[in-house]
Amino acid sequence: MSSDTIQTSESTNNTTIPDQEMAGEPMVNDQEDSLQYEESQNNETSSDSVATDVTFHTLASLLHGIPAALSIQLSQMLSGDQFIRVQELIQAHLPTTVGDPAMPIDGCPLLELIPIECRKQIWECLLYNPLLGESFATGGYGVALELYPAILRVNKQTYNEGMDVLYGCNRFLVQCIPQSSYHFGTDYFALSALTRYQLLNRVSTAAGDNNIIPAAKYVQHWKIVLSATERGSYVGNGLASLCRNIYMADIQSMEVLIVPRGIERDWGSAETYVDESQLALTFKPLERLRSIQQFTIRAAEFHEIHVDTLSYDEELAEEFTPILPDPVDEVRLVTLIQGNSDVEIIEEMYKNLLTYVQNFERIEEFKLDMENLNVEDLDQSSSFDITETSSDFFTSSNPFISSSHPVESTLCAAKIAMEEDNVNGFKLHRKTLILYLEPQYEAIEACSKDLVDFIKNEKRPEGFFEPEKHYHSKCGDTANEAMVLLEDYASSFARKLERKTRVAIRKQKLLFNSRYDALPREQLLRSCEMAYEKQWWNRFVDNYKKAVDDMDTQYLAIREARKKLYAWDLQSTVRETAFMPSVLDEMIDWEIYEPDMRVNEEWLEYRSYARNESQEHENNHESDLGDDEWSSKRTTTKVLQKQSQKIDRDNGQSSERNALQASIRKRKAPLTAGSTSTMERMPLEIRREIFKYLLFNPELGTASCVHKDGGWGSKIKYDLQPAILRVCKEFYAEGVEILYGENRFFIECVLSTSGHLLHRCALTRFCEIASPERFHSSSELATNHLRTVPGVKRIEHWKILIAPMRSNGRNNVINLCRSICQNRIKSMEIAIAPWDSLEHPSLSRGGPRESAETNKIAAERIQDVLSPLEILRCAGKVVIRGADPDEVPDFLFEGERRGLDFYSWSLGSHWRSFAPHTRVSLPETMYLTHLIELVQGDSEVELFHEIFYAFLNYAQAFERIYEFRNHMTIDDLYHSPYLAENPFRGTHPVESALLKALRMQMNEEAGAQDISELKILRSNAITFLERQYQRIQQAANDLVRFVKDQKVSGGLLDPVESPPFELSPGVQSEGLALVKNYAESLDRELTMATKIAICRLNGQYEKRFELLPREIAIKKCTNAHRDGDVEGFVANFKCAVDDMDTQYLAIRNARRRLFECDLKGSVHSTEIDVEPLRCDERIAWNKVEPDMDVKKLEILGRGGLRCCRKSLSSDAYRE
């Protein structure tokens, strides 16, 4: 290999930029600079050295499969014979390159052969540099440190071992020197090798945590350089920010270096340096650190001081004078940091207080305002001028802030105390805030207790909230009391308004009230009130439960935040509140009966329900005592024990505080090196036997999985260990193949799914999905919940129980087939259950001996029920037979009448009282043979439901209101109470086409689902939506061009630097116009009938959009443009664009899937062009747009920027 070739390959492979660092681990990456430095050094050497380098690189290039940098270091460390031996090992164990997917990601066979001591020496050659502990490392991104952190990306073993060297052996120097802050209220992070490519103070949270790179928490050895000079309030040194982000790190040693007198600017002035007491305040941020065994304070040496600290205008002192703290203060600080005493973290204390206060507010905008409180924003009242043409200013105003509400003002004072690290002042403001909110909390707690007591009384048999009760009569008085309690509970959440706040609200009363009227709670309260007036009790109970759940969600959030108020305080802190749980901190379970806690005076025991009072006690009639109370005593006791275990009798604060304090002392242990697992060394056959022992059980394929006596399978212990799948990816892949590929799963298609919407099987034994309407059985086909159950799509062996003569038999089979039609089915057994009724003959008697008429009726019924199986393909083994006696569940013969079809029940038909003793005989029919051949074949099939779902998703992507999207899947036969507020229902062509398609989708009759008619409806809707899609695409393209032009250096959207204040307003105007044009294109196209329906709603339709994030961002963007706030304009511009891009990309994603389920060559599959015209990705705001100018690229290719990469040696830098 020639030297030219070698140099070309080096220049090609070493073009790493900082943005290509490991995700989440910004490290020191100087491979590019170091190689450029080596190249410059090679150019200056003689021809002999060049020849030597050529031989050196040629020898190292033979080590394929490992990074080039490691090959170079190995060639320097090993002799010729050793190098040849290593080469042979590489060729034997690493036949592929690192980039090959066949390469293992957990470990490297070559590294396993090298002793750990040798590997550590290799990592030190690549990742260790003592210059990281000198000022040379903080000189900027042009400094070459000759480190190769890219080696950490090879595999996990390299990463774990290399991390210990990079962050455990190196000592990182941090320059905490004074520097001016251009952003008031922020504290610049110090200069170090970790922050050369990143300014850490770009983002600041409410708690003051500056955005720090994740690599800082892994550093174990620090050298912190401080200055003892006097600094103003606008000057920061970064020490506070550093300590806020490393107080949880595992720090082994730390040196605090103080710049001596005689080096910094104005060193001769007496007012430049602080005294010993003020120097102790400079060290105060260090007091939050603990368990650092090696901690020293000394004077900084000259090579440890940053060049910006040196004085340019005056000469340095002839002799430097060390500046050290008072010995007493030094001993106290060292003892504190080396110890493990508890520490109060004021930032965490403020976060908990902020969370507690925010939970009392319901408007999300007002919650965000609490996070961004500033003293300037308080008491800045605005005048209301009715002559103004725009009200955007008042739309975004917050009356609680403009009127200096006690909560907001006190919270702002607490935030200031937190930023000043004033713990005592913060606690004083926190006490004031908690005492102010305490009366409201007590009112909420009292109202909640009254409401819960009332609900407990009525959540019993024959009560108003009896589970599964769907008819309520003569309950006016109970509903009246329930409504009063609900209104009291809702009013208790209203914030206390002071006089100044009421005055500020009066200026924008309609707007302020509309904010709350649009919330779900107020809408549910209005629905309850309307249902109460109309005496629609079913609807009243439904909305009442939702309203209570909404308020309980806020109440439990307040209680949860209340528990954590003092989590970060010392144990000796005086608490203003005593958290004692008066009620169970859980949501109300409306689906279970409330246990009766009344005491039976005769037996002195808890009273239990009678047999007809609860479904849980229907099977306990075999008690030896023969008493109804004693028959259900066991169940009641279990319920009481279960609920008593949930009650938290402790305040929950001390344990949580101790856990948090212990986490400070318990440092994060380094990741262990990857090693070869014992399971990986075993043969595959042995591993499969182990997984079968853990994950295989034949009982999954028996009818016992769905027995009612066994709690529908929930009480059965299968002795399976699925937790083994979480160990690693290899275990998961091999275990899933056993769990879902070897087991046979039994599933019933017998019971009506109107109550729980799920078929009974082992996978659904713990799943219960409440049906919105009990008697609307056809709605089950609109939303198939079985397909959402994890694991159903992986099952390869099925045993299906079908009852053809049972009501909804075909409906159940349709749902099951739609759920597994995409599965890889290896075997499927279909067992036909017996049936007795007055209308149909018994299948147990059907067969060759029966009459032709009997066989004909049974065969037609079986064909009708089994016809949905025709959508299945490529099944392995398919068997259709009668059910054996042990395959018939117990609920078929227990005498219930609910499972009968309505016709048989009305005639007085009863169930069989005994189970069959032989296999059920099937009638003679050729259809079963035809069906088996069809299911086992591989012919093409069009899935009606998949085409419908693709059409539905595309139409829903154009709609932004959540309720309107859900209405697209509701048939108006069921009269949803919210359909009247939807102006598109019955007036818009898209909704009309979807409604017709939905009715076909929900129709369970054979032949009702006409795919040709569905495609015609889809074509009509797509044609109508195509005009809007073209407008959206054009608006998006225009906006993207603008973003590309401005996402460059010096542009409005520059990712590196903030936009200049003197930026031309014309650029903002253009961006604002494009954003509004983009937003208008996403508004749905309205027909005249739809416009009329919107007018009838009297502004309710427009109010739905006022509080959406897109509209809020555009309004704030408009205000920022008017006020000249460039940063605010850019921030809200990005939010608005991201929100609209999310909807646009959802439309494009659904558009690509429109014709995926159509047969090839279909006429309707080429109606529109679904190919992407641009990259379907979100805009990356943090990346500079690449310059596509050919001339500039040519200059860069010729080495036009080579001078910028040239680095200085350490000696030259010190001079």
TrEMBL record:
InterPro entries in the cross-refs: AN11006-like (IPR038883)
Biased composition (Polar residues): 1-18, 37-49, 633-644
Region (Disordered): 1-49, 612-659
Residue ranges with Basic and acidic residues bias: 612-624
Protein name as it appears in the record: F-box domain-containing protein
